[in-house]
């Protein structure tokens, strides 16, 4: 039990605690709003006409307001990066790591918005039907009929009999704005699916900017004043005056003092105005950065359709493992694409390794028109704009004694920056460097994927040997693809270097046996906090997360702290 609690608290407790708090707030907001509209005297007469749909619709609306705030704040990357860089990792490290889950919480909020949008729409469809029927049909109660036909002040927005609910919907601000919001939400959510986002990023990018339309309609959605509440419940108590006969007694207060009604006014803008201002400042900062000069120093063609761009920008400061957004105005003046930095903070430039893997990256490769020599005349390169850098979980890599860096395919790019930075700090003799051991894992399907990165690994291997620390980085490279030709080459190779990567460390074939790997590292590093950093597919991420929990042991003092790249 103690082991389970340790594992849970180390990797999952902050996230689950945040989710529980978030869900609790949602539940409280829904039920307090529901009970307010269900039991409050000022909504008693409105409830007679609309019946049970009003509390449900208004409870859902309150949850929507709250989550629309979160869905914006979770995308304020500059604010998040500033917070994580300002907090002291030593005393709030677990909660700093929550900031790495901003994309996850963004999705949670979006799913909640989708669900409660359905609840809200269904509730108001029920309400709209009741409003039209209470004015038009004769089989309603006398009180309901009397309330519906009040003229000045009116309570029922339906002012003539026989009106179709759909016709009424398209004649109101709330109906038209609600319809536009719902359509925008459907397009945003459907284009954000993994398949479209990975394969057709441009579609995801442009449709996701429908959030501008969504929030504009959200702000004006409640300005129509369709639903009203009673303002004079002290003079005309609805609990007493529910008996319509009292309205016909000329001497009774219920007849002498008629109920007065008014619209509550728009409420949503009070929730979203502050987040909208913060997000607007974020976008203005991005616009400012888009005009800053980015000097391209070198462009290098690597194997496997990978291009390296080395750049310089005044005032640019980064940490190992961070990422930036890149824009090429010649391709598109609107599109920004995220890329992990592959340079170290200690270098005089920053670099990206960009693989040709989509429409935009293919256009970028064509714009740079690399020669067969692999170099390009930088004076002919198109202008680039850079926004960032932004922090990720890898920014905490220097906080651990032992680190495991695990990359799958092109997901190795964050660790190029990390390994370089570790080497520079060791080479410069940084006194307070905490990292004492690095386990590097790289999993690829075919040999071509190794080509662009192995030169750097070989250089690092040689440099570590020169400073008498050959075992500081433990290379573990796995090739999951296999063919007979490669098998024969491997069997015939007798050199000291690996025939695929040309490293001293031999390439392993097949998938890593993570149980054995974690067990071995745990047994050799008792009493150590080990940082596990991963960039790659979600399926492997679940396995590594499970292994990190499973092999954290309070008896031996081993703690595996799992971190996944999200951007």
Structural summary, described in words:
The chain is an alpha/beta fold and about 575 residues long. It has 23 helices and 14 strands. The protein has helices at about 1-10, 15-40, 45-50, 55-75, 75-85, 90-95, 100-135, 140-150, 165-170, 175-190, 195-200, 200-210, 210-220, 240, 245, 255, 270-290, 360-370, 415-425, 450-465, 485-490, 515-525, 540-550; strands at about 230, 260, 295-300, 305-315, 325, 335-340, 350-355, 385-390, 400-410, 435-445, 475-480, 510, 530-535, 560-565. Strands 12-11-10-9-13-14 form a six-stranded parallel sheet, sandwiched between helices. β13, α23 (about 540-550) and β14 (about 560-565) form a beta-alpha-beta unit. α3 packs across α8 (about 140-150) and α4 (about 55-75) runs parallel beside α17. The longest helix is centred in the first third of the chain and has 35 residues, at about 100-135. It is elongated. The protein starts with a helix and ends with a strand.
